[in-house]
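[Q] Does anyone have a clean C-alpha cell version of this?
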Amino acid sequence: MKTNLFLSNLGVSFLSLILMISSCTKPGADVSVDKKQIGDAKAASDVSVMATAIVDANTSQQTIQGFGGMSVPIWIGDLTADQRTKAFSTSSGIGLSILRVMVPPNSSQFAAEKATIDAAKGFGARVIATVWNAPAGMMDGAYLKASSWGDFAAHLRSYTQAVGGVYALSPWNEPNYLASEWMHASATEVANFVAAYGDNCGAPIMAPEPFNMDQTFINTYLSNATAKSKTLFVSGHIYGKTPYNLGNIGKSVWMTEHYTNSSISGNDWPNAMNAAKEIHDCMTAGWAAYVWWYIRRFYGPIDENSAITKVGYVMAHFARYVRPGYIKIACAANPTTGVYTTAYRNGSKIVIVAINTNAAVTYQPFTIAGVTVSSFSRYVTTSSSNLASSTLSITNNAFGINLPASSITTLVSN
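[A] Here you go.
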C-alpha cells in the first residue's frame, strides 16, 4: 500500500511550512534552512504539495532484471575494450547489466558480436539477441516464408552456438512496425512460430517485442498458450508510448529498446533528466528492465570519444545500484510536486532513487518500514556533477534530504 501524508492546507503559512519541515527532521537529517532555502520554500509553499515518501520493504512488487543498451558491430562498429568497461563495470562505469545485440542475417557476421558479448558476460551482464531480418533466401519480401521456419530456427540456433551464452532471443524486432525495412509479422504469426519452434532456437524466447509496447499485439501473442509457455518474458519498445502497466499478463515485462532524442547530445542535461524520468516511469509501470538503444552514440550513454555522458550517469543511478534480482518495493511515485521516487530491496539492503525535476532545491522527507536502516551512501548527479558521493546518517528509520535543483539522487543503505 502506498501512503501519502499531504499538507492539509495548500495555503499553509510560510512559518507553518518551516515548522513542518523542522518536525520531519531527525538527528543527522540532511536539512539546513539557510536564506536561499527559505526563499525556495516560501516560493514553493503556495504551489506545491509535499508528502513523506513511505518506503515499505514489506510490500514487494516486480523483480528487477536490469538496465542495458545495444551494440551492433555490423552497423556502427564494435565497442572498444575501454568502452566495454565504461558500459558494464559497476565500479568505474555505468554498470549496465544487459547487453542487447543483433542476430545478423549472414552467418559470416556472427563472429563480430562475440568480443563484446564475452566482455559483457565477464562483467556479469546478460545478453539478449534480436533478429531484424532472416537470411534473404528465407524471406518473401518483408515476411518470413512459412516454409522456412525450420531453417530460420536452425539459423538462430547456429548464432547462439557461435557467440555462446545468450540469455534470451527475440525472433522479430518490432514485427508490427510496417513502415520499417525489417521483417514483419502479425502477432498470430509470431506466436505460431514460437509455438512450433521456440524450443529449437538455441536460447529461451523473449517476445513479441512490438513497436509502441502494443498491448493488443502482446495479448494476441499470449493468447497462444503454447507460445506463452515457451516465452521467458514479454518484451517491447515504447516509441510513441508512455510506459503503462500491462496488467496481470503472467510474464515479466522488459522494455528492450528506446532513446529519448537522437538529435540531442547525451550531455544535454534536460534531455538526460528526461531519460531519468522515463526509467522511473518504466519501473513504476511494473516493468523489470530498461534497455537503451546504442550504447555508444553521441546521444547515448557513451559518446564517440569514449566518455560517459550525462545520459550514462543518469542510467548509472539505476544500473550500478539496482542489480538483477533486486525487488522493487512500495514507495510513493510522486510524493512531492516535481519529485519522483522509487525504492528497491535486496535482503536488508534498501536503494532509493529520487529525481527532482524542480528548478529549486526541494526538501523530501522519507520513512522506512519493514527493515532497519541507520545510514546511506548517497550519490548525486546534477548538470555540473556526476555521482558525487557522501554519507547520510538517519535515526528511527526517518529522515529528510534536500534534493538539488534538477538532479537525480541514489541512496544505498549501509
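[Q] Thanks! Anything notable?
[A] The chain has eleven helices and 19 strands.
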